[in-house]
């Protein structure tokens, strides 16, 4: 999987496990996520960042949609009654409170494997990023997520983050 990530450079891409622990990532993702605080700490976790870090609301202009998506992803990973995803959800309920617990209590919502999310980056402004999620065949239920620019302005922003001349990453159509 690391060899695949290496070949994806400079594209922002990362691997998460069933609890959304960020296990590995490209330099492109590091340039995108680190200034937002997503990769802070020894064990970065996307759900934990979304619900417990106040910076997430500035990073995600559509925070409510991202929060719903994160909870749907966690629900989708529940396999057995004793699954550690339930214990993780319990810790989040105690830490994040109603913002998480109300969403969790709603039950399973269809998680998205592809779509477009907005990200407000402090250095390059608003980015619209298409994402594609690929399930990896492994016992830890890992997923590879790849971001591509959804429009020309986002492509230019990612190019600036990478220190490249504009046009190196091409936007992809959403139609």
- Average per-residue pLDDT, rounded, comes to 88
Succession of helices and strands: HEEHHHHHHEEEH
Number of strands: 5
Q: Order of strands in the sheet with the most strands? A: 2-1-5-4-3
Class by SSE composition: alpha+beta
Which ranges are low-confidence, i.e. pLDDT below 50, for 5 or more consecutive residues? none
Q: What is the overall number of helices?
A: 8
State the helical fraction: 40-55%
Silhouette: globular
Query: Mind describing the biggest β-sheet?
Result: 5 strands, antiparallel
N→C terminal distance: 30 Å
> What is the beta-strand fraction?
15-25%
Radius of gyration over all CA atoms, rounded: 16 Å
Please give a structural write-up.
With 175 residues, the chain is α+β, with helices and mostly antiparallel strands. The protein has eight helices and five strands, in the order H-E-E-H-H-H-H-H-H-E-E-E-H. The protein has a five-stranded antiparallel β-sheet. A hairpin with a 3-residue loop joins strand 3 and strand 4 (125-135). The longest helix is centred in the middle third of the chain and has 14 residues, at 63-76.
């Amino acid at each position: 999987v690391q060899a695949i990530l290496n070949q994806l450079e400079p594209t922002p891409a990362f691997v998460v496990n069933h609890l959304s622990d960020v296990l590995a990532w490209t330099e492109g993702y590091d340039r995108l996520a680190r200034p937002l605080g997503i990769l802070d700490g020894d064990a970065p976790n996307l759900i934990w960042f979304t619900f417990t870090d106040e910076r997430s609301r500035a990073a995600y202009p559509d925070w409510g949609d991202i929060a719903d998506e994160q909870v749907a992803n966690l629900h989708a990973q529940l396999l057995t009654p004793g699954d550690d995803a339930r214990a993780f959800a319990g810790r989040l309920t105690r830490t994040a409170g109603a913002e998480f617990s109300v969403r969790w209590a709603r039950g399973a919502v269809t998680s998205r494997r592809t779509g477009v999310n907005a990200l407000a980056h402090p250095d390059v402004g608003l980015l619209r990023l298409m994402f594609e999620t690929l399930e990896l065949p492994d016992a830890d239920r890992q997923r590879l997520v790849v971001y591509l620019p959804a429009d020309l302005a986002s492509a230019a922003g990612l190019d600036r983050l990478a220190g490249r001349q504009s046009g190196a990453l091409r936007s992809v159509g959403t139609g």
